[in-house]
Every structure is written in structure tokens, then in C-alpha cells.
Design goal:
67% helix; 431 residues; rod-shaped; alpha+beta; 3 domains; Bacterial polysaccharide co-polymerase-like
């Protein structure tokens, strides 16, 4: 049986439950005031950082810092939000002194929730997203306006410092890597040259092109042997051409001279032949030596090619390192410095108290309606006819009961009645 069907019923409910509604509204308003006073104001300060691109084009002086700006800034944000970094900020600015009884982990959590780092993507070039960031906004929410400004500025300074340090560290590590690689290749080439020297010494290959020299020497020996053979033949012919009819002593002397010449030529021929045999033996073993030399050459060419590449990359790394140390690469510059906020961004206390009072009024109406539902009573003829379908013959209004006054009310009533009687007596006397 619902008690509210019209505006008149609603107004009757308000009249009947006026005291209940009044008490709930008063208590709710008082609670709203205390609630508004208990919530402190919060201030938001923000510092805007612009990511400036390198001053020198990449095709002229390429940077050795790899990865997108978004990924690098994400790593920086993780470092800023690390526990040790937040603790240093808390200790530096003496934050959350009112929470001195709370553990440090609670303060770290509150500060981490109070700081936000948002990036704005740069305009795309083409259809691919290169992860470039144009603007970085660091926002800090604090209970004090000046503290919010100082903390936002501190986070911005640390962001710039971490970005520059990370880029310099990456370029320095790249340069050191290629320097070590270049030095290792130089050491390998020197070791290979020592091995080649020892191999050449062991195989009598002190000069380059030794095989060609040996072959040339063998050819010279062959020519010398041919000349000696011609001389031997000529000497033998001369010996055979001696006139045997002459004096015997003369013939013997000529034959002895011819034999001596032939013996000398034969001795020379034997020496040349031995030398040619020795050189031929060396030439017979040289193919194995040549294969080993070819292996040395291939390894040397390979190392030299790697050294050229490492030297080129080391030069590029030096250029990139110079760019970063001279602040000619990507930089983070302050576009809008954090200022002390003029007003809190949270709801005003008056507005908060008004909202609480309105909520208390709505709650009072709901409570009054629930009380009406809990105790449904037919109070008017309209309700009787609407709920039961019966039209009442007569309606007897409720007569107010007189209450016996006591105390000050009773005294006031007596004086009032006495005054009325005295006024009536004076009127009767005058008439």
C-alpha cells in the first residue's frame, strides 16, 4: 500500500515527517561541514619539456643512440619512479611530515600516485610510427602549492639529467666497444704477421716471391750447364784434334792440358748440377708452402677487411660521442617551467559542504518515504477510496488533545488568563 500518489500526499508526508527530515538535514549538514574541513586542498604543478631534435642532420653526422624516444623516456620514467629515487625526493623536500608514523613504503606509494609523466607523440612522417615524442609533461599533486612547484621542477631536472647521461653513456659504450674491437683486430693481425715470419724463416722464405727467384735461379743454372756442356764438347773435340805425329812430349803436354780443362769443366758442371738439384728439391716442396702462404693471405685479407669496417664504425662512434658531449644531439629543453599554482584544483570547501547538505536532504526524503512505507496508514477519504474502492460516508477529523501545561508554560498561561480577565473588567467598568 503506497502512501504517496500525488503532490498533496507528498506535502502531507513532509508535514508529518518534518522533525525527522529536519534532524537528518541538520546532522548531515554538520557532517558535511566537518567532511569538507577534513579534506585538505590539493595543488597541481606541471612542467612541460620539449624534446629538441639534433642540430646536425643524421646523414652528415649520424648519432649512435639507438631506439625510439618513447622507449628511452619510458626507461627514464622507470628510473624516476624507483623506490630509491622517490625516497631521495621525499628526504630532500621533507614530504609527508604529517605521516611520520607511517612506514616509508606508504610515503613512496603516495608520491608515486601523485606524480604523472605524460608524453605527446610527434607528427608522423609517412605512415609509420617511429615512436618520436615532441612534448613531455610532468605533473605533481601536493597539499602545498610551493612544494608542488618544487617537486615538479626537481623531477624535470632529473629527467633532463638522466636523458643526457643515458645518451652519453650509450655513445661512450659504443665508442669503447669499437675501440676494443679495432685493437683486437690489430693484435690479431700482428700475431698473424709473427706467425708468417716464423713460417718464412723455417722454410727459407725471407723474401716475398721466393718461388719465382728459385725458378729463375734454376733457369740460370740450366743455361750455365748448357754452356759448360758446350765447353766440354769443345774441349773434347780439341783434345781429339791433337796432331799425334808431332813430338811425343808436345803431344803429351797438349793432351794433359786438354784433360785438365775437361776435368775442370766437369767439376764446375757437378757443382752446378748439385745446386740445381737442391733448388729443384726446394721447388718440389713449395706447393705445400704456397698453400700455407695462401691460407695466411686469406686470413690476413679477412682481418684487414674487418679492421677497415671497425675503423669506420669507430670513427662514426667518435662523431656521435662528440655530438653528445657538445650537446649537439637530441636534447630536453624546458618549454614551460613549473609555477606556483594560484588555486587548488580540488573542489572548494563551500561547494563540498553544499553537496553534503544536498545529499543529506535527499537522504532525509528517502528516510521519510521509507518510514511511510513501513507504516502505511489511510489518512484521507481519497486514500480510502483509492486503496479499497469504498467511499467513506463521513470523515471525522482528529481532535487535538489539550496538554496540561507545567512549569514556566503554566505560569505564563496563568498570567495571560489573568490579564484577559482584568482587561474584560476594565471594559465593563468603562461601559
Amino acid at each position: 500500500m503506497g502512501p504517496i500518489y500525488s503532490l498533496a500526499d507528498f506535502l502531507d508526508m513532509l508535514r508529518r515527517r518534518a522533525m525527522t527530515i529536519f534532524m537528518i538535514v541538520v546532522l548531515g549538514s554538520v557532517a558535511a561541514v566537518f567532511w569538507a574541513l577534513s579534506i585538505p586542498h590539493e595543488y597541481r604543478a606541471a612542467e612541460v619539456i620539449q624534446i629538441e631534435q639534433p642540430k646536425i642532420a643524421d646523414n652528415l653526422a649520424p648519432s649512435t643512440v639507438e631506439g625510439s624516444a618513447a622507449r628511452r623516456l619510458q626507461l627514464i620514467e622507470q628510473q624516476l619512479m624507483a623506490r630509491d629515487s622517490l625516497i631521495s625526493i621525499i628526504n630532500e623536500f621533507s614530504l609527508y611530515e604529517e605521516l611520520r608514523n607511517e612506514p616509508m613504503s606508504t610515503k613512496v606509494r603516495i608520491l608515486r600516485e601523485s606524480v604523472s609523466i605524460d608524453g605527446v607523440a610527434a607528427a608522423r612522417q609517412g605512415f609509420t610510427d617511429d615512436g618520436a615524442i615532441s612534448v613531455l609533461t610532468i605533473s605533481v599533486v601536493m597539499g602545498d602549492a610551493k612544494t608542488a612547484r618544487d617537486v615538479a621542477h626537481a623531477f624535470a631536472d632529473r629527467t633532463r639529467a638522466l636523458s643526457a647521461a643515458r645518451r652519453q653513456e650509450q655513445t661512450r659504450e659504443t665508442l669503447e666497444f669499437f675501440r676494443r674491437q679495432e685493437q683486437n683486430l690489430i693484435d690479431e693481425i700482428a700475431a698473424l704477421e709473427r706467425q708468417l715470419t716464423e713460417f718464412s724463416r723455417a722454410n727459407d722464405l725471407s723474401l716475398d716471391g721466393n718461388r719465382e727467384l728459385l725458378q729463375t735461379e734454376v733457369l740460370s743454372l740450366n743455361d750455365a750447364l748448357l754452356d759448360i756442356d758446350r765447353e766440354i764438347i769443345a774441349a773434347e773435340l780439341a783434345r781429339d784434334a791433337i796432331d799425334r805425329t808431332g813430338r811425343e812430349s808436345t803431344v803429351e803436354r797438349q793432351e794433359a792440358a786438354a784433360e785438365a780443362e775437361i776435368a775442370s769443366l766437369n767439376r764446375q758442371r757437378e757443382l752446378l748440377q748439385e745446386r740445381r738439384v737442391a733448388l729443384s728439391a726446394q721447388l718440389e716442396t713449395s706447393p705445400e708452402v704456397e698453400r700455407e702462404l695462401a691460407r695466411f693471405d686469406r686470413r690476413m685479407n679477412q682481418l684487414q677487411g674487418q679492421l677497415d669496417i671497425a675503423t669506420t664504425r669507430r670513427n662514426e662512434a667518435e662523431v656521435g660521442f662528440t655530438l653528445e658531449t657538445n650537446a649537439r644531439g637530441e636534447r630536453l629543453i624546458t618549454l614551460e617551467e613549473a609555477q606556483i599554482p594560484d588555486y587548488p584544483f580540488t573542489m572548494a570547501r563551500k561547494k563540498r559542504a553544499a553537496v553534503g547538505a544536498v545529499a543529506a536532504g535527499i537522504l532525509a526524503l528517502i528516510v521519510a518515504f521509507l518510514l511511510e512505507l513501513r507504516h502505511p496508514v489511510i489518512r484521507t477519504a481519497r486514500q480510502m477510496e483509492r486503496e479499497t474502492g469504498l467511499r467513506p460516508v463521513v470523515s471525522i477529523p482528529a481532535a487535538p488533545r489539550s496538554k496540561k501545561r507545567r512549569g514556566l508554560s503554566h505560569i505564563w498561561q496563568q498570567r495571560r488568563e489573568a490579564g484577559q480577565r482584568g482587561r474584560a473588567a476594565r471594559l465593563a467598568k468603562n461601559s
